[in-house]
Write a structure and sequence with these properties.
With 285 residues, this protein is an alpha+beta fold. It is 28% helix and 24% strand. The protein has a 5-stranded antiparallel β-sheet with strand order 11-10-9-12-13. Helix 1 packs across helix 8.
């Protein structure tokens, strides 16, 4: 069977993190290759990977995703998860989420303390601004410049010391985790493609509390979308620590997340390959 790993024209062979996947899939008899999304190529399964130019071509990307006969993650995920207002849905389902408001230009009821303003549709932290306490003029100017719906969230100061913990699930089962250093800092810089801020990554061992929140977030998302958790070929659950130390969901990435294969054990790509085979088997069952 033929599998395509969908990417964008700026990264025709992905960003490097997925380099191991072609060989891992070949080991279990699955022929895979890279393909720029929208190119018209067909396959038994198309897997969304580094499609990171979609915010600028959102309608086109969503239409393309809906047209793909067999997509992973499923096409129903794409319109929901490419708009970060899904965090409000998950909070309503009982998931502990970083407090999130969805606002539009002209909003003025800014929170106390440091906070973040970022576009509701975005990738790679593009358009995200960390706002100093009380600097409402900068926040309003940024929101007006974005010109689109945005999220407002209190900045979680624990990130500066602890970073984020990203938990990766393959086929609905926990696989591995890694940490990401604070990104909204004066030292942040974009990679040469301009699509994402360069991240400082390292392997991690999540706590039981973190795994519980991550699994609850996945289950809630599946319920909202009419799916089962194992319908997600992959998922990345990004958590931060609240002021009380309890884990909070920052993002649930179900469309095009980096999965941290360079930060974990060599068997993780094989777990991904097995999850792909399971998805292919379900297609022909």
């Amino acid at each position: 069977m033929k599998v395509l790993l969908a990417t964008c024209a700026s990264l025709p062979s992905g960003d490097g993190d997925d380099d191991v996947l072609i060989d891992a899939l070949a080991e279990v008899g699955v022929a895979a290759s890279w393909s720029v999304w929208g190119s018209g190529e067909s396959a038994d399964l198309v897997i969304l990977r580094s499609t990171w130019d979609y915010p600028e071509r959102l309608a086109e990307f969503r239409d393309w995703a809906a047209s793909v006969p067999v997509l992973a993650n499923p096409a129903v995920v794409v319109p929901w998860n490419t708009d970060k207002s899904y965090l409000v849905d998950l909070a309503g389902a009982g998931v502990p989420v970083v407090p999130t408001s969805v606002v539009t230009p002209g909003f003025a009821d800014w929170p106390d303390g440091e906070f973040v303003v970022k576009p509701a549709v975005g990738a790679g932290s593009r358009g995200a601004l960390r706002v100093a306490a009380g600097d409402f003029g900068a926040a309003s100017a940024h929101l007006d410049a974005l010109g689109v719906p945005a999220l407002v969230q209190p900045y979680q100061a624990t990130v500066d010391a602890l970073g984020e913990t990203a938990l990766v699930f393959l086929g609905g089962q926990y696989s591995h985790a890694f940490t990401k250093g604070a990104m909204l800092t004066p030292e942040a810089e974009y990679d040469e493609s301009g699509l994402f801020i360069v991240e400082r990554l390292a392997g991690a061992s999540p706590s039981g509390a973190q795994r519980r929140v991550a699994e609850d977030a996945l289950d809630a998302a599946a319920g909202l979308l009419g799916l089962r958790r194992n319908d997600f070929l992959y998922a990345r659950v990004d958590l931060v620590s609240g002021v009380d130390g309890a884990p909070l969901l920052l993002e649930l990435e179900l469309v095009e997340p980096s999965l941290g294969f360079r930060q974990t054990d060599a068997s993780a790509p094989l777990r991904f390959a097995s999850a792909v085979r399971a998805a292919l088997s379900a297609r022909v069952a």
